[in-house]
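[step 3/7] fold_predict: job queued, chain A
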Amino acid sequence: MAKLKDRASDARPYLERALKDERVREDVKSAVGTAREIYDELLGGRAVTSAAARVATDKDIQQSLRDAIEDLRDAADRVQGKSGHKGRNTTLLLTGIVLGVLFNPVTGPGTRRWLQETVFGEGDEFEYKSDSNSK
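[step 4/7] structure written:
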């Protein structure tokens, strides 16, 4: 088992990032605040069994718990240096939209013609040939 000093030095970059990153602190504050509100609402003079039943049935409390968990996940991801997939997802979305426009039966032929004229010029002819028409 590693010594406490070794484990502490392994955690140091994460602690420094957590202390310096304002967004991490805000996510943690938000999660703690939400958890405190849920706790006060659930156990405000009630028995634990009635609180558990309320968590299982109350949609607002369930959403608040989801929000608190999401805030903690965001904070943990930032501390660990994980990044999202925004660039990849944006590229995939734009590619899908472009392919949809190009191969849509209504807009496709006109769009392909415009693209062909823009890329190759108006004088050049370029024709699509399919195997099904050549039989």
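[step 5/7] annotate
DSSP finds six helices and no strands in the chain.
The chain has a mean pLDDT of 76.
exit 0
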